[in-house]
Design goal:
There is one protein chain. By secondary structure, the chain is of the alpha+beta class. 18% of the residues lie in helices and 48% in strands. It is built from 2 helices and 6 strands. It has a 6-stranded antiparallel beta barrel. Strand 4 and strand 5 form a beta hairpin. The longest helix is centred in the first third of the chain and has 11 residues. The N and C termini lie close together (10 Å). This is DUF1905 domain-containing protein.
């Protein structure tokens, strides 16, 4: 299954600071429907992602009824992305 959406990059300044994009509610519902059997530790969902020409692997984090996509530094640097940028993101899930 593939999901495509746009979202704004935000920075979480917690004990382990990181950049994320929030998956829209409707797409989060679709992901939740297929997540059974894919999830591990705290409900994380493994996925492959693509932003621009950069492909990466990640694990979505459930938060407040939606999912957050962590954006690795190598992805942000390769695509010259910063906090506040709105990006197009494609996620793929290995559904059996």
């Amino acid at each position: 299954m593939d999901v495509e959406f746009s979202g704004e990059i935000f920075h979480w300044r917690g004990p382990a600071p990181y950049y994320f994009v929030r998956v829209p509610e409707e797409d989060s519902e679709d992901i939740r429907d297929i997540a059974t059997g894919l999830t591990y530790g705290w409900g994380m969902v493994p996925a492959s992602g693509q932003v621009g020409d950069t492909e990466f692997t990640t694990a979505l984090i459930p938060k407040d009824g939606c999912y957050l996509v962590p954006l690795k530094d190598k992805v942000r640097k390769a695509e010259d992305l910063n906090e506040g940028d709105t990006i197009e993101l494609r996620l793929s899930f290995a559904v059996a």
